[in-house]
Write the structure tokens for this entry.
Amino acid sequence: MKIQVEICCGSATDALAASQGGAQRIELNSALSLGGLTPSPATLILAKQWTGLPVIAMVRCRGAGFCYSEKEFDVLLQDARILLENGADGIAFGALSSQRQIQESQTRAMIDLAHQFGKEFVFHRAFDCLDDGCAGVEQLIRWGADRLLSSGQKATASQGADLLKILQERYGDQIEILGGSGIHAGNAAALIRDTGLRQIHSSCRHWVKDPTTQTAEVSYAMDPQYSFHYDCVSEDKVRALVNAVAQIESEN
């Protein structure tokens, strides 16, 4: 059973590290500290040039949730078009209503745009905020979405394994199910065995020091635990994850 490893990247250099570690696909973002926002076209172009891997581009204009105004969506749709024109292999997007249901018109417009370019549409972890996950995935299937990224509506994929198993068994022949959140080399094998997932998504994050992050008076620190650091993809962690997945593949 072939299992695909997708790495969540926040820069073109992250994408290069993911590729060198053996990843098969990239989800490209900016601002991962906000949950992932739209990357720049330059970041996408160089990620494609440097890796040769399929790159799914995040389309998200701000942090917090996924309930977008008409004006926000105008920007999102234009961003998606620009990314697709510059080589994105797909779009990751999610829009919800204030009642925590999938926002139909925005989602269908984004699906249609991706498919106009002959590319993939991925509904991202906005799904994990839905009140009724099974109803949501059935909508996405009807509208032609290609893939769903989910943690099984829990904080991590391991905690959401029961729902991920249901999604894979019930819907996996109609839409690709991509498990994500908290997946690493130490738990990937158990998750794959427990759920039957054929695709996993991981950040494989580590921290790198930048001594100019703060002074006695000014701070640009991202995280209190890592006061002089920024996060990026670890090639070694990607390689360890890919090797763990390869071990599972060899058992089947």
Notes: DSSP finds eight helices and ten strands in the chain. The beta strands are 4-9, 25-28, 55-58, 90-93, 120-123, 147-150, 176-180, 199-202, 205-209, 229-233. The longest strand covers residues 4-9.
